[in-house]
Structure formats: C-alpha cells, structure tokens
Amino acid sequence: xxxxxxxxxxxxxxxxxxxxxxxxxxxxxxxxxxxxxxxxxxxxxxxxxxxxxxxxxxxxxxxxxxxxxxxxxxxxxxxxxxxxxxxxxxxxxxxxxxxxxxxxxxxxxxxxxxxxxxxxxxxxxxxxxxxxxxxxxxxxxxxxxxxxxxxxxxxxxxxxxxxxxxxxxxxxxxxxxx
Length: 178
Fold this sequence. Notes:
The chain has helices at 7-28, 30-33, 44-55, 63-78, 85-100, 107-131, 139-173. It is an all-alpha fold. The longest helix has 35 residues, at 139-173. Helix 3 (44-55) packs parallel to helix 5 and helix 3 crosses helix 6 (107-131). It is globular and about 50 Å long. The protein has one domain (2-173). It contains seven helices and no strands.
C-alpha cells in the first residue's frame, strides 16, 4: 500500500536529495574526485534505489518508474540529452531484484549486491562511451583509475549511510516511531 504510507513522500524526497547531492558533491569535491589520472563517480542515486528495494518491506515502491524518471532527470541535467542513465537505473533495480533472490537481506549481502550493481553500472557506462568514442581509455586503465576509486567512494557511502537510511525507512513504515 504505497499510496497510504509515508514512503510516498519520503522516497521521492530522498531520491531528489540524492540526485542533488550527486551533482553537488561532484562539484564541491571535484579536486578530490577528479584528480588526474583518477576519477571517482558519486552514485548516491543508485545507493538510494538499492537500499529502497531492501527496506521497502511489503509496501512495494514503484522503483522502475522512479528509476526511469531519475535517469531522465540525471541525463537532461548533467548532459542535456537523454542517454544512458534512463536505461541503466532501471536495469540496476532489476539486477538488484534478481540478485536478492539468491542472498539473505543481511548487511554483507546488501553491500555485495551494491558492489556488483556499481561494477555493472559503471562498466556499461564505460562501454557505451567507448563505443561512441567519447572516451578512449583502455579497459585496464578504466579498471584501475575509474572503477576502483568509484567502488571505494560508493562503498564508503554505503557503510556511512546504511543505518541512517534504514532509520528513515523504519520511521516511514512504522507510523513515525523509530
């Protein structure tokens, strides 16, 4: 009963905040995130979508439509054209659903699934940009200079934000009681 829960407000607000923070953190921390030859990509939207899947309980948030909308906003705001994110965000939600069938909902399982999601998301992004000659970085350099730092940053986000996001979901699901 998504319509009747507080999640109908909490989830979209959290998604918007994550969209905003992805851009804001990348701008504010640009000297750290994009220090040649390394580059770290903040993926708070993916974190919010993945954790939302695990924390929604029986509410069943319409994650795919929200993922498509977030991808469209992300693409239009950051690149000016509809591109990869409109397809990759829903793909990651589906991959999370598939992987979660085979693992328990423990912290370690969730962080492992998020790890796999980030690897798939960033690698598809790299391949698409490589195919259209937006990037000419070799795959080995991509793994070392982009994927590894991106994984480190986003796994730190996961560890830091897991419990606050879980508390927000518990509050939204339990009539305001944590």
